[in-house]
Inverse folding.
């Protein structure tokens, strides 16, 4: 009797387990065939560039090819930098008692292939700060032309003509870009300026183009000024500040 009860209990348990399995929904163990989405990330971080920017060709700066000016001095470091400014050579002139106007020679340089070229005198700046905070560029003739013996070329005056801005940037909305600049020794004058929201990239103020490069910067000397048979020199200080030009 005990043996039969054991068989009955086992049979009933087996039957119950089978019944439990049979009532589970068929889809419980099936994998869905619908589309799956997953999101991944991508990023890039920019930082100000402090390396000096090479001078670019004043005729076609959009080419991006650096040049080697014949009178090149090292530019300032970035990210807001003065990359280059031409030195001016008015040549060797005959002494005269008449008012005279002398023209600066064009800039000489080598292009990226080493070819000798001439072009307009210029000044180049670069803003790689990544802020578009604006800036102002000024120039000052530090003093009158003088000899090594401190003899002054009284009344001499430099005028920059045919000024125009060219840039590697699409933003040419500078607030300061005078076509003509008349220098007064000892006084700073504005050359270029960008307001807040503008001025990122490299900008060149060139005086003249390929046809007027040798006739755009003038030195006028009064006839009554004493002139010694010596070399007269002056210097220019170019100042680039983070002060944006006001609208």
């Amino acid at each position: 009797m005990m043996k039969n009860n054991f068989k009955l209990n086992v049979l009933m348990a087996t039957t119950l387990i089978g019944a439990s399995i049979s009532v589970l929904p068929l889809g419980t163990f099936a994998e869905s065939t619908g589309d799956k989405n997953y999101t991944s990330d991508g990023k890039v971080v920019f930082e100000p560039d402090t390396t000096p920017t090479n001078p670019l060709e004043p005729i076609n700066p959009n080419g991006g090819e650096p040049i080697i000016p014949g009178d090149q001095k090292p530019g300032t470091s970035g990210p807001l930098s003065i990359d280059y400014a031409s030195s001016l050579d008015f040549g060797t002139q005959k002494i005269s008692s008449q008012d005279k106007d002398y023209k600066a020679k064009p800039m000489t340089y080598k292009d990226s292939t080493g070819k000798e070229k001439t072009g307009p005198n210029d000044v180049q700046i670069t803003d790689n700060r990544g802020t578009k905070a604006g800036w102002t560029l000024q120039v000052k003739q530090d003093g009158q032309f003088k000899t090594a013996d401190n003899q002054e070329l009284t009344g001499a005056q430099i005028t920059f003509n045919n000024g125009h801005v060219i840039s590697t940037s699409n933003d040419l909305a500078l607030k300061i870009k005078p076509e003509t600049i008349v220098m007064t020794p000892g006084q700073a004058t504005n050359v270029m300026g960008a307001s807040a929201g503008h001025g990122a990239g490299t900008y060149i103020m060139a005086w003249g183009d390929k046809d007027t490069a040798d006739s755009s910067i003038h030195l006028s000397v009064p006839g009554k000024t004493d002139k010694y048979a010596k070399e007269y020199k002056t210097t220019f200080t170019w100042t680039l500040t983070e002060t944006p030009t006001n609208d």
The two ends are 110 Å apart (CA to CA). The first strand starts at residue 68 and ends at 69.
